[in-house]
Design brief:
single chain; alpha+beta; four-stranded mixed beta sheet; about 45% helix
Length: about 120
């Protein structure tokens, strides 16, 4: 990864919004059902707010500047083409309804990572 990309990611981490800080406190250190999230991760030409590689899930937290933003539609399509599911939440939702946002993330994680299939008959104990 290029040095300028890493520097930009570090800058984004230092200048997080209140909603990003709150959500990061809830998701860091595998606090949400054991899933590991990373913040401000570059994927292709984009930086994601929060990503769980295990579940191929990206969580984006948006302020008013994202309202009806055509670039976000293009960006989400590109990230989906990379195999990721993208969830978007308004900053206000995170700040006022954190439990609801976390529930939506848990639901997306459960869809992305269903329980493994049972062992074939010959391999059961």
């Amino acid at each position: 990864m290029q040095t300028n990309t890493l520097s930009f990611a570090k800058q984004l981490r230092k200048n997080q919004t209140d909603a990003e800080n709150l959500m990061w406190r809830e998701l860091r250190a595998s606090r949400l059902q054991g899933f590991k999230f990373k913040r401000q991760v570059p994927l292709g030409i984009y930086f994601t707010d929060l990503v769980c590689f295990e579940a191929k899930l990206i969580v984006e937290l948006d302020g008013a500047q994202h309202n009806e933003n055509a670039r976000d539609t293009i960006r989400d399509k590109a990230l989906r083409e990379m195999g990721f599911n993208v969830l978007r939440f308004w900053n206000n939702d995170v700040l006022q309804n954190l439990d609801g946002v976390k529930l939506a993330i848990v639901e997306a994680l459960s869809i992305a990572s269903p329980h493994p299939s049972p062992l074939p008959l010959g391999e059961r104990g």
